[in-house]
Amino acid sequence: MQLDDIHIGMVDLLRRNGRLSIAALAEQLGISRSNAYQRYDWLIETGVITGFTATLDFRAAGFGVAALVFVSLEQNQWGAFRERLPTVPELEYFAVTAGAHDGMLLVRAADVAAIHELVAMNLAQWPSIKSTETVFVMDEQWDRVSLGAGFAGRALRSPGEWAGESPLGSTRHLRIAEPGEEDEGAPLR
């Protein structure tokens, strides 16, 4: 099964209000309750929906400052870095990146001094981190992309289909064949 417009609509509705009942989803999408249940279950079983969570107003919760901390890592230290990430209570999100830095942390704290302490006194001391660059978030406008933004109609891959791919945070180095070395059956390394 592939995502279709009804799946996308269901996900968008649930992202706005994760407490919607199946009956409300069915009504808003113009489908039967049975169809809504089947689609809802499929979205969970395939991993499109991984859970439900509360949406926070971070300022009201006392986390008035957000920053993006870009990190450059010692390449042989990815494992150690990943093991320590859960120890950072200010961490909301981490992504492996391409470009000048290896990763980006979205962190939140009460004030700039708390972010400074996190970066200068904590993260900068990790042997796995070569350098950091911190960018403060001035304003947040939108935190959600619609699945309708280009994913409709693409087949979902099961977890088994991901096997053999490089794990995130690992760099695959390829050797480029020199002219005359081409062996169509041999993979480049």
UniProtKB/TrEMBL annotation:
What name goes with this protein? Lrp/AsnC family transcriptional regulator
Q: Which Gene Ontology MF annotations are present?
A: sequence-specific DNA binding
Recite the lineage of the species: Bacteria, Bacillati, Actinomycetota, Actinomycetes, Micrococcales
Q: Biological process GO terms, please?
A: response to amino acid
User: Which residue numbers delimit the HTH asnC-type domain?
Assistant: 3-64
Disordered, as annotated region: 162-189
* Compositional bias annotation for Acidic residues: 179-189
* Keyword Transcription on entry: yes
Q: Which domain of life is it from?
A: Bacteria
Q: Which GO terms describe its cellular component?
A: cytosol
Question: Whose protein is this, by species?
Answer: Mycetocola tolaasinivorans
- Keywords from the UniProt entry: DNA-binding, Transcription, Transcription regulation
